[in-house]
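Shipment paperwork, digital attachment
Item: protein structure file
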Amino acid sequence: MSTPRTASVALLAIAVLLRPNAAPAASDPALARARAVLARHPVMDGHNDLAWAIRENPKAPGDVFAYDLRTRTAGDTDLGRLREGQVGGQLWSVYVPAEMDSGFLRAQLEQIDIARRMLARYPERLALCTTADEVERAMRAGRVGSLLAMEGGHGIENSLGALRALYDLGVRSMTLTHSRTLDWADSATDAPRHGGLTRFGEEVVHEMNRLGMLVDLSHVSEETMDDALRVSEAPVIFSHSSARAICSHPRNVPDAILARVKRNGGVVMVTFVNAFVSESYSKASEPLWKEYEQRTRGMSDPVERERIGIEIRSRLPKIEVTVAQVADHVEHVRQVAGVDHVGLGGDYDGNDAWPTGLEDVSGYPRLFAELVRRGWSDEDLGKLASGNVLRVLRGAEAAARRAQAGRPPSNATIEALDGSPKRP
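Attachment content:
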């Protein structure tokens, strides 16, 4: 989740008809080969905010029955488009805004509830999973293997006990921050206060390692990335971040960190958000989203927040971003970190502006077709699709078994390690 979003079904249908990459597989050998690879190795995407779209649905907030995934939704995701996109695994974000004044943990529990009810609503197509083996079994059965992923450590409210309880509810990944710097970790998009992780922040990482919860470094500052890579006992992920060498947005990953991800064994999951893909789009849109954050900070009314979002979106730059530009990021991560350390994290239902041809979850085969045309092997495409992230998940599970054999759950508190939190 990076910006608010809405979609017009009529406009989206027109875009699908007009987009230049919409050729059927029969007339596009690269697309046919991409679809064949994905039939064997379905996409496992790192980040989708569908649960938040359900919560924010102005017609029926939080109603998983009203937001019917068996029909074409107004957003980016439904069962038909997941099938068309050949998605077989998904880290579903259980996002809670860092801008809330209080009540993070309550909101976090509510989001987990929405996500779990959503998954239970469609048992023939979606499967709640907690391990890599379970994800692979779901894929083989034609279901989307689904992991719950927290977006921002503010949801644990400085409590390792809360972290463990959320793990027990099925959470298998957590970004250390979202848009705001926490009492124990600096964010990429807020003023730094700690120079990375505090001692308690390091303890959060260690406890996530002990549990087997993926340490997700999307949204954190470069110093926090550096500290987390230094202290983590398990491979890390960037669930939805692209390459900073191509687009200088602070949400993207610099080359020095990409090289360290290779040594750590982790994976960087390239995102499709226009502002993180295109330098020109990023520069033109940044002031608008800062305006949105200022106008909606602390706002609890989803209808009013959506009204402001629509007004802001009407002023977004008319700059086309392409599938080829996303492929440039994928290839850059492969060049610096290696083919074993790149994946995909679309960030659908968390943004508004997408590359032409990647407007929703149906678009993944078009990106794979572009990589086929660039000479990627079937083996490497399979790693990108899901092999790498499944390997990292297994690596986190193995690290957890080792850690649990050597130490009990941590009783550390932020007060004992850092002193009383200092508010900005």
